[in-house]
Amino acid sequence: MTEVHAGEEAASQSIEQHLYQRLSKVIDPELGRSITDMGMIVSIEAVPRAGASGDATDAYDVVVQVELTVEGCPLSETITNQIKGAVFSYPDAKLTPHIEVSSMSKEKLSNLVEGLKEARRANPFTKKGVKTRIFAIASGKGGVGKSSVTANLAVTFASMGYDTAAIDADIYGFSLPSIFGVHTQPTNLNGMLMPVTAWGVKLMSIGMFTGADRAILWRGPRLQRSLEQFLSDVWWGDPDVLLLDLAPGTGDMAISIAQTLPNAELVVVTTPQPSASDVAVRSGLVALQVPMTVRGVVENMSWFDHQGERLRIFGEGGGERVSQRLTNALHYDVPLLSQLPLQTDMRTTAESGRPAVLNEDGALDSSELAQSFKKLATTLMS
């Protein structure tokens, strides 16, 4: 081997080693793990380009062979773009990336999934030292905007930089997929499901599997098993926040949540009128029977702004009544966390598949409603 060729080979090897280190910082957006740790980078080859005179230059073609977890991975473009970015930004030479994409063999994928499952057997949210804050959003009756509150609170957390997940635990009346504009099913990774990400939130709902027109007739053990599967058979990573949209009332799912996630904090949603607030108290009183803390009350549809005047269409005082009655019954402070206005945007924007607090670009809006949700999110995390 000539001295020139030996120098070129050493330079290429150095580039390949440094690129591998740089790619170790590329994170799979679904699994939350480094693509090198998961064996997705099969090889890196840096080939020097010849100059006009035939001499080698500091320019290289770099071929990166990537094996994705599944064929047609929905986020493959995101991963390859990050790889290209890591190659393009290499500081010591001019590199041109060439990405060759394929899929893992069944054996390799099986070993990867088993390793991931082994790392987080069963429910990952009850392990010692878990950092995830869990908020279960409840209401005494339907029609108070509980799911809208859940969805807008989730995207607010995400917009504030929190790694956010949401489970549509309203098995009978699931609505989060439509609010988020989700029409796809979760990716099945050898028996482990990957949540669908929409507007920055990792989302899971039974509605993604059944279709919106089919009724769900589950009770008892099967109902609880659906929740356990959402927690243990879905790869959530390590979210900062997990929101659960509960079914109205105090039925099986509310009790299952309390038993499965004793570290969850209950947030009770009501509207101002007595017929709603009186029933809302009952959902908070679940905490007397199970180990769950009631974090506070959110009063939705508190007023409607009309030509500079605040119209109290549904009366007033419901949130404060729920707060006081729960404080007295539970013997600790259950504050009124927020009063949210009645806005047609909450319905019309949600029907288009975008939570109302976001603008069309997916950023948190500057509206009064968005600022109210941001204040609520800040209060919950304090």
Automatic annotation (TrEMBL):
Sorted alphabetically, the keyword list is:
ATP-binding, Hydrolase, Iron, Iron-sulfur, Metal-binding, Nucleotide-binding
Q: List, alphabetically, the SUPFAM superfamilies matched.
A: Fe-S cluster assembly (FSCA) domain-like (SSF117916), P-loop containing nucleoside triphosphate hydrolases (SSF52540)
Q: Which GO terms describe its molecular function?
A: 4 iron, 4 sulfur cluster binding; ATP binding; ATP hydrolysis activity; ATP-dependent FeS chaperone activity; metal ion binding
**Signal peptide (UniProt feature, chain positions):** none
Pfam families membership: FeS_assembly_P (PF01883), ParA (PF10609)
Q: Which domain of life is it from?
A: Bacteria
Which residues are recorded as binding ATP? Answer: 140-147
Q: Where is the MIP18 family-like domain?
A: 17-91
InterPro entries registered for this protein in UniProt: FSCA_dom_sf (IPR034904), MIP18-like (IPR002744), Mrp/NBP35_ATP-bd (IPR019591), NUBPL-like (IPR044304), P-loop_NTPase (IPR027417), YlxH/NBP35 (IPR033756)
Gene Ontology terms: biological process: iron-sulfur cluster assembly
Function, as annotated:
Binds and transfers iron-sulfur (Fe-S) clusters to target apoproteins. Can hydrolyze ATP.
Subunit composition? Answer: Homodimer.
Q: Can you say what this protein is called?
A: Iron-sulfur cluster carrier protein
Organism annotation: Bifidobacterium psychraerophilum
